[in-house]
């Protein structure tokens, strides 16, 4: 007699591993070596920040000023790339030059990357405190590449924080995917979810009921959800069970182990149930209260500094 009993199936959603400022846990952030080593380690995607210099070069840097991460001083916008920023290095060892975005583009278009690492993409984080003119300069730069390297339309995701940037980005980058990056689920739902391809929100914003709701809503609308900055393996497990589409963190090796290898190793419903039941990161009332307060603070900050 044939046994028609079928093993119950389970579905597990494997998020992308997105290297925050490159493999920044082991390399100076936002540098070419950080991006290169993230790709060598096996990351799914990259993430990096851009700033505009006084002479309108697009510089890879997170902060408004160069003070924290480099041997330079002062706001990026008040210094020329040529003759100043091009001569400074990172404070973090090994000292690295501060790249421009075109240096990163030159890396991405290399055949071993664009063809050998199919599916690799990069989120370009354009902070809200940039001058909006950075979008025009970015458009001009990308136009010099995309005619010869149209694969960049798939390799790059344009990340924006506010409505003003969104409106202009939709006009300037119609062939690129757009990503809302922000602190507030309310802002994501009210202004962005229907106008972008991705939502990128901090872990705290997704930890509550409203955060879980926005993940489901985004997936219903065929949008993808990323979360940041995830460096705790327990948080990574929680993110997998939330079914987010991308986990952004500093340590590519740790993320790959906990976001890819561990969930992919599950072979039965029982193993999956054990995996899910061992997710205790938010079990503590104190921790849930902490994230609730953080979420409220982020919503206020989003309204005060970003206007949404």
DSSP summary: helix tally: 13
Largest sheet: 8 strands, parallel, barrel
In whole angstroms, the N-to-C terminal distance is 65 Å
Order of helices and strands: EHEEHHEHHEHEHEHHEHEHHH
> In the CATH scheme, what's the topology name?
TIM Barrel
Mass-distribution shape: globular
Q: How many structural domains are formed by the residues?
A: 1
* Cα Rg: 20 Å
Q: According to CATH, what is the class?
A: Alpha Beta
Strand content: 5-15%
Low-confidence regions: none
Biggest sheet, strands in spatial order? 1-2-4-5-6-7-8-9
- Structural class label: alpha/beta
Question: What's the number of extended β-strand segments?
Answer: 9
CATH level-two architecture: Alpha-Beta Barrel
Integer average pLDDT: 96
CATH superfamily: Phosphatidylinositol (PI) phosphodiesterase
What does this structure look like?
This protein has one domain (16-302): TIM Barrel. Helices cover 42% and strands 15% of the residues. It is built from 13 helices and nine strands. Strand 2 and strand 3 (58-60) form a beta hairpin. Helix 10 (233-242) crosses helix 11. The longest helix is centred in the last third of the chain and has 22 residues, at 285-306. The mean pLDDT is 96.
Features:
308 residues, globular, 8-stranded parallel barrel, single chain, alpha/beta, TIM Barrel, 13 helices, 9 strands
Tell me briefly what this model is.
With 308 residues, the chain is an alpha/beta fold. The chain has 13 helices and 9 strands. The chain has an 8-stranded parallel beta barrel, surrounded by 5 helices.
């Amino acid at each position: 007699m044939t046994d028609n009993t079928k093993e119950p199936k389970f579905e597990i959603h494997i998020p992308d591993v997105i290297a925050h400022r490159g493999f920044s846990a082991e390399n100076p952030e936002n540098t070419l070596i950080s991006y290169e080593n993230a790709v060598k380690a096996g990351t799914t995607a990259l993430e990096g920040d851009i700033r505009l210099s006084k002479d309108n070069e697009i510089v890879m840097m997170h902060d408004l000023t160069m003070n924290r991460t480099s041997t330079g001083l002062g706001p990026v916008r008040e210094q020329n790339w040529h003759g100043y920023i091009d001569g400074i290095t990172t404070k973090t060892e090994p000292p690295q030059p501060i790249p421009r975005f075109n240096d990163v583009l030159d890396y991405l278009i290399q055949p071993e990357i664009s063809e050998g690492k199919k599916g690799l993409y990069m989120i370009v984080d354009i902070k809200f405190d940039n001058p909006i003119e950075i979008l025009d300069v970015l458009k001009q730069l990308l136009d010099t590449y995309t005619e010869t390297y149209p694969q960049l339309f798939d390799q790059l995701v344009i990340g924006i924080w506010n409505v003003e940037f969104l409106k202009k980005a939709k006009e300037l980058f119609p062939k690129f995917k757009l990503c809302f990056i922000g602190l507030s689920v309310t802002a994501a739902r009210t202004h962005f979810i229907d106008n972008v391809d991705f939502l990128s929100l901090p872990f705290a914003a997704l930890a509550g009921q409203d955060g879980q709701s926005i993940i489901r809503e985004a997936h219903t609308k065929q949008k993808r959800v990323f979360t940041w900055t995830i460096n705790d393996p327990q948080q990574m497990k929680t993110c997998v069970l939330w079914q987010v589409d991308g986990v952004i963190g500093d340590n590519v090796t740790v993320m790959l182990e906990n976001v890819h290898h561990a969930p992919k190793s599950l072979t039965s419903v029982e193993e999956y149930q054990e995996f899910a039941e061992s997710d205790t990161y938010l079990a503590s009332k104190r921790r849930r209260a902490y994230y609730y307060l953080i979420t409220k603070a982020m919503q206020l900050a989003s309204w005060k500094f970003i206007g949404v």
